[in-house]
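Problem: given the chain below (312 residues), write out its structure.
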Amino acid sequence: MSTSSLQSPGTVVVDGPGAAVLPARGRRRGRGTGVSVRVGVVLLLVVLGVGALTIAALSGVRVFDVRTPSMGTAAPVGSLVVTRPATAGDLAVGEVITFRPGAGGDRYTHRIDASGPSGIRTKGDVNASPDAWLLDPSDTVGQVVAVLPVVGWAGRALPWIVAAVALVWFATGFLAPGDLRSALRLFGAALSVAVVGAVLRPFVALQLLGTSADTGDGVARVVSTGVLPIRATVTDGGSAHLLSGGTAELAVPGDTDGVFHVASRLDLSPTGWVVLGLVCAVPVVVAFVVGRTTAPLVDAAGSAAPAAEDPR
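Solution.
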């Protein structure tokens, strides 16, 4: 059995076979060196990232957050589209471009549906008809060269999460007792993520694109605007499994008098449910690790707490 005790402020004495006196000051110096290295690595990565973004911006590369579902699975809501300056040869039918239809107008990202001497006609992949405007090549912001799913959602959520976590961090630093500080910070961080997720709704969402009626039942066109797979269902009507940006036509009963209800729910595979459960368990695992690493070394009287007996 071995035990440890605290002696003078500068040393830690370990009693038992092969006992040694460890200088606490050296241990603190080693820990400080490790922190300095990590801070240096983070600063280096930040500098490299800022440099790369600056070079990309100077070369005309732009990024835009997709906020509407008109491009379907090609650019789902919450994606980040990356564009580069487009030449006349890039503006061919089938290419996806970002543009402003008129000076000072909103930006759109649609596919070129037709091109000719009179101008460029665009259309969203899930829209029933082409856009109303004709574009001049000068209206083009850039040609889409990459679509980064989910990154747009992350860009929207991150500032709010960082601000909330920083507020929790500073508040607990001033108000919370030391033995509860880590637990409260972890709880505050998890709560911040949950609240931002509830407001932005990036995971499960559904949008109605339109309805049509035949001689019998009607049809509702819907699109998934969330990140996770869902099942969209019309009450007493049709249902469909949808991925992010996916569309479906759902049968609507003919006796609804034009009023019907469309619901959506998570529709994951067994593996997907396991992965989701593991992700949700991350705060619990972190709490366990933090609890072990912040366990007190001394008791309330100031004496060293006895170490557990070595089973060997």
